[in-house]
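Bit of a strange request maybe. I'm writing a small parser for structure token strings and I need a real example to test against, not something I typed by hand. Could someone generate the tokens for this chain?
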Amino acid sequence: MTQHTNISQQLSEFLFKTRYEDLPPHVIHEAKRSLVNYFAVCFAAGKDETIAKAIDTYKAFSGGGRAKLVGRNIETDMLSAAALNAMAANVFDFDDTHIPTIIHPSAPVAAALFALSADQQMSGQDFLLSFILGVDLECRIGNAVSPMHYSKGWHITSTCGVFGAGAACAKAIGLSVQQFLWMLGNASAQSSGLVETLGTMSKSLSVGNAARNGLLSALLAKGDFSGPQFPLEGERGFFKVYGERADFEVLLSHIGVEWEILKNTYKPYPCGVVLNPVIEGCMTLFKEIKEGRLDLGELDYIELKGHPLLRQRTDRGDIKTGRQSQVSAQHAVGIVLTKGCAGLAEFSDEAVEDQFAKWVGSKIRFVDDVSMQVESACVGLYFKDKRELQVRVDHAKGSLQVPLTDKELEDKLLTLSTQTHLTPSRAGVGSEFECKNLLEKIWTIETMDDVSTLLI
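Reply from user aminoacidic:
Good idea to test on real output. This should exercise your parser:
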């Protein structure tokens, strides 16, 4: 696959021909890790206002169905379930992150596949193959248009996620090469999402649409709903419209040999991934503050040095809601330096009202350093009496270099499923027994005949 023409055709052929037996064991294991994290973050959204509002609106138009919403006593149609579960997985910005694109790959792909499994029995092996292929395609497309695509203002999880969801569902349905190509065309017509929506409910809407529209793209293609011959590389196709200078080499390089899911990472904190090293640095500094060696009241300023993406994504000082705080360096720094922790409670509406944390966060000065990686940052505290203290984090917990362990991912699921965010009307859901049973099923998913039984 070295030709820069007929790229859509080449990708369709690759997706069509790849078999479960072609997947290395460590790639399969990483897919399971992604699913553990997916369920964890879906549970976390059990009582989130954004998802509740979306459910109320969607149910008015649902035609009924057996597709389940994770952690809720609700069944709905496939398309609605795909959208709502993808929204839930992404709403707290606690989901997985592909490096270097910053795509959150599992939310659109897993949500679409599980919705499909309610209508079409799907084995664990078929699910894993479809899931891994969907993640690979969305992230390869993201690689090809990065970093310009995001910098231009496109929300890359949404714009690329629709291709991943579509590819995964197309594989599970068993489409032909021609129908795969039509699926890509259908997905390209529905690719959308803007960075401007970050910190608002609208961000979740486009992530949900990526799952819903990807599933719809595959279902339409199954019915021979045709699309363009060159949906990605055409003169007015996705790459030229959304990417301008797409890198076809990185798109096709080692496809089927090197798998993008191995570049997936999982967050220890519910916020934008670029804030992970900042939070880790602030936690180290908090220890000095807690032991009385530093007095935040005597702060002059805080220097936050990192990759330019850190400033571009998180320089948000005037925030009003917990949703906005997920992408605010000012909030993250202020709340962690004053509280010493960074869980869901620290990124809530209530936490945003902490006046002392606001004052501390207002002291930030950003310094861009293009030589630094996205997963690194340096936090410096400078005091009025000329004292200063800096902490540099080269690889934050949850990065590719310092990944969360399987046990830490399990703990994340168990913790988030039993917190108050879980819908109280779901009797039994969130119990330690039920969640441990879910974990056992995920780790052995390749032995399952029907993956829809995973949804609780």
